[in-house]
């Protein structure tokens, strides 16, 4: 059977991998969850939307004659990675897991490491102006913090709206230039950054900006 690779994507690394494999002449389909209405272009074929769980992913793999899955999803995207493991076993398709390493704290970083979003929300001091860099589907644990001003950045606004008490919405992709991130923090008088330890290079600029401005970071640890 000829090689057909499914990349579970939605990350910068997945797009880079697709470009590399397509340049080598390999047959590649990248799967995106479909949450971003205008995703950045990806080399090779692209499909969008959920598969309907692990069993249906397995059926899809067989129907599409996939010979290898590469899980290059975001480290906090847990369900799709679990589904990939089960679907690979059910369909007898090889699975290659590409996991990012978490960012390592630099001596100048002021980090408060926490285990989950709820603890992050409860760790913020009252009256802070918080840059909340966590993704639109994770805002709920912060809704009770009526004593905090949030600046939240996302590529698309959530369909369900935003239920934070006091917030400013910035519709943009993260910059890869730490100086641009620092300017944004200063223009908005940010006093605390809340984010996840996602690793990789795509979203690291905000960590350097916080370091350079001596802004404390409440950082959620990468899942094991
Ligand atoms: P998740 O919680 O692991 O997945 C929820 C459901 O969304 C999955 O069960 C699956 O639906 C569908 N799904 C997720 N990734 C998919 C993919 N690449 N292709 C097809 N269906 C997918 O994931 P999430 O945290 O919502 O993240 C969704 C996507 O955004 C991922 O591809 C991830 O790489 C990307 N992303 C996530 C984050 C983050 O912070 N979580 C950040 C940047 C990018 P079915 O069960 O119906 O198949």
Roughly what fraction of the amino acids lie in strands? 15-25%
Q: Main β-sheet: number of strands, strand sense, barrel status?
A: 6 strands, parallel
Mean pLDDT comes to 96
Cα distance spanning the termini: 35 Å
Structural class: alpha/beta
What is the count of helical runs?
6
Radius of gyration: 19 Å
Q: Fraction of residues in helices?
A: 25-40%
| Element string (H = helix, E = strand) | EHEEHEHEEHEEEHEHE
Shape: elongated
Runs with pLDDT <50, length 5+? none
Bound molecules: NADP nicotinamide-adenine-dinucleotide phosphate
Q: Strand tally, please?
A: 11
Strands side by side in the biggest sheet: 6-11-10-7-8-9
What does this structure look like?
The chain contains 6 helices and 11 strands. The protein has 224 residues and is α/β, with parallel strands linked by helices. Helix 3 links the parallel strand 4 and strand 5. The two termini are 35 Å apart. NADP nicotinamide-adenine-dinucleotide phosphate (NAP) binds next to strand 2 and helix 3. The site of NADP nicotinamide-adenine-dinucleotide phosphate has 22 residues, from strand 2 and helix 3.
